[in-house]
Amino acid sequence: MGKIRDAERTRKKIVEAAREEFFEKGFNGTRVESIAKRAGVNKQLIYHYFKGKEELINETIADFISGVPAANLILPANPAQIASFRYKVNQEHLMDFLKFTAWEAIENLPPNPNGEDTRKRVLQSYVEDMRAKQEMGLVPKELDPALITLMMSSITIYPLLYGNVTRLITGLEPEDPAFQEKWTSFLNEISKRIFNMEHEED
User: What is the pLDDT of residue 109?
Assistant: First the structure.
């Protein structure tokens, strides 16, 4: 049992070091040697547990998402509250991961090196949630649930990742409480207009 526990601790230490490296430097910028150094282990030990960077990034993202409190992945019942909810979760819990996705956008990556299966399950659950709300009459029937979900991702991530653009347009930094309050209010107001079903006939 002692050897098993030691192996689990070592594996965990490697995954934690890998997360810091990947989120800081992106997939292409991360070296196994750097992960080993950060984890305080021999490089060959990493290859004992993982086949390479591709397997390690998948494991890293799966581990990261599994560590996100379940409440942060369950969307509000009222669709008009989803945007401000996702913005708050992104801002308070997911910034390091979101920075990694910015690296993804500019890197030429091999197939599925980025925890795609795990991430797809989460994002598709958002689409299904929106579709269920649509069937309940809470979302306009002419709107595509997948496109609404994509829109929600865009407006709740972009201002956080592209701080310089946010500052140039609004004069405020994304970390500024004044901006956060204004953007949350804006998200709520826009969402009320999108999901206001009062105009529809019974």
Answer: 74
